[in-house]
Amino acid sequence: MTQAAYEQAVNLIDSANSEDPNIEQAEGKDWPKELLYSLRMSNMLERYRSDADHVVKLAIRGQHIQRWQSPRSAYPMDRQGYHKWRSDLYVFHADKVASVMAQAGFNEQEIERAKNAVAKVGIKSNPDTQLLEDVVGLVFIEHYMLNFAAKHPEYTEQKWIDIIRKTWAKMSQDAHAFVLAGKITLPESLTPVILKAVQV
């Protein structure tokens, strides 16, 4: 697919995510939450796998497209409700990305590839899905783990080790090596427990 079609799809994703009413601060300015997340995902992909093709780049940039339109509060506040929300989100985002790509002129095969990655089809067996999962884990560790920790001061060190190991298990050996080579910024206060969790 042409560079022009790719850029059109990126602009459509960014425009959609710019509508997010939820605001986060970063680098001294306010950002729509999902726009900031998508930019961080694309930045991490460029650092981690700069050779990724347009289809994967769009899947990763659009992974959370318009997430605020499907809030957690719309589902029962129990474990079953959480899992239902998550599984529905995969389909919601996959369909949104597919619509954007179709509008930009991508073909059915390319759109299906992106949908499968965003919908988390075939983790560990689908290279596109695994790459997306790697980038999700890397972005979480570098940008979101510290804030998550601040929301859960009651968590013990063992609880944190369990959380980190679950994230780590979803990532590939290449992503593990990327982290251990110092290619991402670890949250300073959590670095000891992260390293303890990932030691084998």
Structure characterization notes:
The protein has 200 residues and is mainly α. Helices cover 65% and strands 4% of the residues. The protein is built from nine helices and two strands; from the N terminus they run αββαααααααα. Strands 1-2 form a two-stranded antiparallel sheet. A hairpin with a 2-residue loop joins strand 1 (23-26) and strand 2 (29-32). Helix 1 crosses helix 4.
Strand order of the largest sheet: 1-2
Distance between the termini: 42 Å
Q: How would you classify the helix and strand content by structural class?
A: mainly alpha
Number of beta strands: 2
The ordered H/E elements are: HEEHHHHHHHH
| Major beta-sheet overview | 2 strands, antiparallel
Percent of residues in helices: 55-70%
Mean pLDDT: 93
Coarse morphology:
globular
Strand residue percentage: under 5%
Unreliable stretches (pLDDT < 50, length at least 5) are: none
Radius of gyration: 17 Å
Total count of helical runs of at least 4 residues = 9
Which characteristics define this entry?
two-stranded antiparallel ribbon; mainly alpha; 2 strands; 200 residues
Give a quick rundown of the structure.
The chain has 200 residues and is mainly α.
Topology:
Layout: H1 3-17, E1 23-26, E2 29-32, H2 33-48, H3 54-61, H4 79-104, H5 108-118, H6 127-150, H7 157-170, H8 173-180, H9 191-198
Antiparallel strand pairs: 1-2
Helix pairs in contact: 1-2, 1-3, 1-4, 2-6, 3-5, 4-5, 5-6, 7-9
